[in-house]
Amino acid sequence: MTEINPAEHYTDGDVDTNDLGRPSLESMAAARYSRRQTMFRGAGATTMAFMGTGLLAACGDDDGESSLGGVTVSAGENAATSAGRVVTLTGSASGTLSGSSAPNWTQTSGPIVQLSGTTGTVTFLAPAVSAATDLVFTYTATSAYGETSSASTTVRVSPAALGFTAVAHSLADVVVVPQGYTVTVMTRLGDPITANTPAYKNDGTDTDFGNRIGDHHDALAWFGLSAAGGVDASSSTRGLMVQNHENITQKYLHVSTIVRDEAQVTKEMEAHGVSIVEYKDAGDRKWGYVQGSSFNRRITPFTETAFRGPAAGSAMLRTKYSPDGTKGRGTINNCANGVTGWNTYLTCEENYAGYFRRDASDDALRSPRELASLRRNGITSRTGSYSWSTAPTTNTAITRWNATISSATATSADDFRYEVNQFGWVLEIDPYDPKSTPRKRTALGRFGHEGAFVRIAANQKVAFYMGDDSGGEYLYKFVSTATWNAADANATDRLAMGDKYMDNGILYAARFNADGTGDWLPLVFGQVPPRPASSSYPDGYTFVDQADICVNTRFAGDAVGATPMDRPEWTTGNPVTGEIYLTLTNNSGRTATTTNAANPRSYSDPRVTGGASSGNPNGHIVRLRETGDNTDAKTFRWDLYMFGVDSTDYDATKTNVNVSGLTTANDFSSPDGAFFSRATNAGGQIKPLLWIETDDGAMTDRTNCMLLAAMPGTVGDGGAVTIDNGGGNTQATIVGAKATAANLRRFLVGPVDCEITGIDTTPDGRTMFVGIQHPGDSGTAAAPGGHWPYTQDGSTPAASVRPRSALIAITKNDGGVVGL
């Protein structure tokens, strides 16, 4: 998320090194291959090709490892590699060859792979394996006299391993990636998505943002397209990129003076929301976007939406625009996301509350219940973010940001007093149907939605895991009433599948117990007690129906005793183990006396500049495993997978803060985005890669925000520890295995001032897409704090060039799986 007002070599033993009873590569070669096969000309010894140089070379990480790239091996020779890497097989034949049967490569044993290329040279991606596995290939040629000759090659594939040298800290205004990788800048703020929309001038004069890429690129997802333009979940060359646009950098949208008129406000509103754009590979992962694609679409705060679920039609959703409370306009502050099993996109509304204005007169016209709800959800501003509602206009799409009750005699059909309740939801979008109306799924609750990871398991109910991104808020789970039917993955009425799996079910809040167990507490009317009175809410809060619980979900979490967490951000799931990961980005309000087992640290983080920050400034990541690995489980086990830290300030000996043993090759702060590689490629199989993105303010004096790659273990791979927070305050907790160079490395560092957020890959794992949000947003419109993406090619832009949020594509130069 974006803070609107920021404070602003090693083995773990899981390697098969015992060669007793196993033939060596050399002995296999002696047994299989004859030196009298003179028809073939090899290239000599087996060679290892190292990766080339990306746009900006990264420094080594002092771990003594080399970054392995693709392997080239000739007919009759042998080689070794690891999962996800490119293997090239070469063969040549001499003499008088058959004119009707060209020499060719065939696979004769081992896990089947797809061979691509010519008859003499073919390539394949080494498959995922759990132990060293041999693949045998035979090169055969036939002479003009009908004689055949062949030579076999064995490629031994080892389990996947991180295959790059860790990127060092960087304060440069450029995206830094490891050697052997290339960055391509894709859709940027303002890029036109319709054929007739002019190119973006980036000087503040541009308009028509309803047909342009929005600002503050955030969560994203790839949806494959077939050649005929239908759903093809396996396509890695053509697809729809769906991306959130969380917020704006206001000063870069306008020429100079910021005024509150309808034109400027419209531009700012349209720069929010979601974009859907067709991406296409021109060959060998040369990516571009299709400007005039019929699929291209913007969903903004002006787009009509429909409400579904328990709160649809509730009096709490009724407005002048929708007197029956069944429809609304648009979406705002879209942060993290989710992807369903029926090919729809879930965008999550996070910091919606700040956009609304409530005048002082409003308080006297509200009931105590309404005032409590407004306070608990943070709707207290007298101006609203960007003061949109002050623009002199009769356009209710703009005036609605004033949620003040218009008069003592007015009803909800006369004003927008309940417009605030129309936001804070999960919105479902069908990216394949540009004419479809997105639906807000109220059964999933209303709060500062950060993400909605969807876990689907055969013959189980569908589960959605969601964080509420604010200090002291909760982790939620929604479980569908319907059991997953695999046939629904191919449904053509995709939003109807959303009705099936998202409108009926049970919403839960999480309680993390001190012994490493946890409970899912149902938020069901009749089972949720009144929210008890407190200093801020002296009257407490009593629920009247399920719609009330859906609208005031935070109160329900309070009432059942959910565990207050350190800003629950993204959720993601391990595709092999089913374990759920939740990033807890930081919490300045955490003190030594208010820690709990799941949020155990309170300390001061010194800064080179800007002053110290306190609480839990660097954040951590919690993971959980459902009892019985069942999505509908009511209990779970948990541990704290990883703790963020600036290892220069707190080295590995300072175990009360650097709990995970991080070094400068893998330290990080404020984990935010989180994503497991897709199960459709070697990066997401056997031992999947976890990608961690940061949105940091505590460590940015030392390095810009970053992306790390991890190969995590499982819940329970660490143990119990007690953290001393000082002043006699200790906290017992359960932690995961420590970080090492083998299981956690920094993969990317972003440009100046940015947040790294939004991540997905093509199904084959050979292209990764990452969002770069609000680069260079310090400084002024005339003298910005940075100029990315114009700096990415190594050039030096003019001092007045405005930066732009953008999406990047990252590819491995040898065509292998990213990260391996």
SSE blueprint:
Elements (H helix, E strand, L loop, with lengths): L24 H8 L14 E4 L17 E7 L3 E5 L3 E5 L13 E6 L6 E2 L3 E5 L7 E10 L5 E11 L22 E8 L28 E8 L13 E8 L16 H9 L2 E9 L5 E3 L7 E3 L4 E5 L18 E3 L4 E6 L5 E5 L18 H9 L19 H4 L26 E4 L9 E3 L11 E3 L5 E7 L3 E3 L1 E9 L10 H9 L2 E8 L4 E6 L23 H6 L1 H8 L4 E2 L1 E6 L6 E5 L18 E3 L7 E3 L4 E7 L8 E9 L27 E6 L13 E5 L11 E5 L8 E6 L5 E6 L8 E6 L5 E7 L5 E7 L32 E7 L8
Parallel strand pairs: 2-4, 3-9, 16-21
Antiparallel strand pairs: 1-2, 4-7, 5-8, 6-7, 8-9, 10-43, 11-12, 12-13, 13-14, 13-15, 16-17, 18-19, 19-20, 20-21, 22-23, 23-25, 24-28, 25-26, 26-27, 27-34, 29-30, 30-33, 31-32, 33-34, 35-36, 36-37, 37-40, 38-39, 41-42, 42-43
Pfam families: PhoX (PF05787)
Protein name: Alkaline phosphatase PhoX
Organism: Novosphingobium soli
Which short descriptors sum up this protein?
820 residues; Alkaline phosphatase PhoX; 6-stranded mixed sheet; Immunoglobulin-like; Ig-like_fold; 9-stranded antiparallel sheet
